[in-house]
Amino acid sequence: MLSKLRKWWYYFLQIPLYWISRWVPPRRRLWVFGAWQGERYADNSRYLFEYVVRHHPEIDAVWFSANRRIVNELRQQGRAAVRINSLRALLLALRAEVAVVTHSLRTDIQPLIHPLKTCTVQLWHGIPLKKIGYDDTKFTHPVQHSFRQRLKTRTIELLFPFWREQYSLIATTSRNLVPIFASAFRHPEKRVRVTGYPRNDALFYPETPSPVPSGERAVIYMPTFRGGMGAESDLFTPYGFSIADAETVLARHKAHLFLRLHPVNRPPLEIQQAIARSTRIHFLNEGDIYSRLAYFDVLITDFSSVYFDFLLLNRPIIFAPFDLEAYLQRDRELYFDYDEVTPGPKVLDWKALLAALESTLAGQDLYREARAAVLQRFHEYQDDHSSERVVREILRLL
Description:
- This protein is α/β, with parallel strands linked by helices and 398 residues long.
- The protein has two domains: 11-203 and 383-397, 3-Layer(aba) Sandwich (Rossmann fold); 217-378, CDP-glycerol glycerophosphotransferase, C-terminal domain (Rossmann fold), CATH 3.40.50.
- The chain has 14 helices and twelve strands.
- The strands form two sheets. It has a seven-stranded parallel beta sheet, with helices on both faces. Strands 10-9-8-11-12 form a five-stranded parallel beta sheet.
- The longest helix is centred in the N-terminal third of the chain and has 20 residues, at 2-21.
């Protein structure tokens, strides 16, 4: 309750600053970046930020973060970074010429970013299989049936002019996705530009070392977000997960299985403790996955958009939608027919998953052509120049 009161008090304080910011002239070549509500140095904003730092020294690029450790680490690397709620961050946000986010201006950077003065860029954080933004009427914008609910929403939008955000540019990866992003953000289609995602540039030149010894293979399991912040996500015990069976398959093929749950979810404690004792199954919840995704030989997922990016590597994908029907009813609806856009075997429990993994590690790949077809549908560009294209689009708008 106290944290909610602080949040709303913070937003009330931002109202006069928002209107003042409209008349504060932007500082040329000052670009500010943020991601994941200020909690992570990751995703499309990170890779665009690093590209700008390397290739455009004439631009003052500043990373905004709520995490003191991230700010300190970036400063030690010689990069500009500020705490989101600091006075310096406020002054920089007032003068920013460009603001780049993956989620929301008011959470990734500052609510006072004014779209009539600052070029606002929404890079988002994945190709949407699941409905997002205003299209998501179950989680993000639940359908408001009562007059009271509609009145509450309208009041918030009137009180806080920064609530319904406006973007100068929304990046996507394919012309097929332009109508979806326009609908999800309630923006005209002309503001949605096909550039590719900056984070996918890293797939072609991974910077971190391989997570497994030479001669061994790496498999990663990345299920999608479920429930609310900090929600438990047990996709193991109810679906017959056996560490012994998994280790047998992995050892036979000299492979390791890495488990990475969605950043806002956590597994039950007993699952964490059991896996911590394993020799071939490991949690991989720290750091940005895109700096190392290219090292994985097989991806296992359910509804996570990471598989769209993994298609660029042309490697096998196993789909494990254990709770498909329940997920669709409880969490999110999908934009596409699931079977049509998921080029890989579908399994509904860990026994079937391990059987599919065994076949895949043995060299069986029946979905190569299907992967190529989905790749063409969702990736207009299949190279490492997405950051360059995004910068070009931003400069065109200035």
